[in-house]
What we know:
43% helix; binds 1,3-dihydroxyacetonephosphate; alpha/beta
Amino acid sequence: MATRRPFFCGNWKLNGSIAESLALATNVRNGVATLRAADVVVAPSFTALHAVAKRLEGGSSGPVAVAAQNCHFEDKGAFTGEVSASQLADVGCKYVILGHSERRQLFGELDAAVNLKARAALRAGLAPIICVGETLAERDAGETLGRITAQLDAAIADIAEADLARCLVAYEPVWAIGTGRTASPAQAQEVHAHIRASVARKFAGVAASLRILYGGSMKPDNVRALMAEVDVDGGLVGGASLQAESFVRMIKEGS
Ligand code: 13P
């Protein structure tokens, strides 16, 4: 059985000046400096990416990598207001969060766009963190697993096995994001196992090592129970990643 290294990404969403982002990133880096058991990533706003990536690069106190929260699917051209994956790589990003439910719900992002973005990210050498998740109405209607399969299949369509090996998947139930209402460990495990099995049907070799993150009101006091589930490999963390102290405590609890 593959051992999967725990992976925690703080999604800072639309928060933070450059100075605030640098302070938070520095405190996270210092807080996990002696930790060798997990991959740690922070995802600032576009405006702070370059400064934070510079602050975190190299360094003897243990690397913390940088993710962007979105990218465009074309590499360049007349796309006013967009940022390409290669531009993100240029400022020092290693990862990009794609298909977050806030983008899907608030900005009309469709499954097909998530797929194009994932392929653009892979072309640029970034590792996509592909988000999937059901709404409360879908869960109540018994549609959770079907919804997840549809989102996942669309997102990874036409991605080769070697490229999929560079991707991560984040299960973020929409009803658990920013609500304080976490999926129970059993609810998370059911969906995570389903994701792994879906990937295994296509690419058995990748499925066992694919890291599947949970996101949705993950906190220092619930991370341990979630991480105890066999298919929960880490977290995509919103609110609790905005304070270095709680993010670091969570990573330590969960690793
Ligand atoms: P919260 O941790 O604030 O619920 O946000 C989760 C999330 O959306 C991470 O991408």
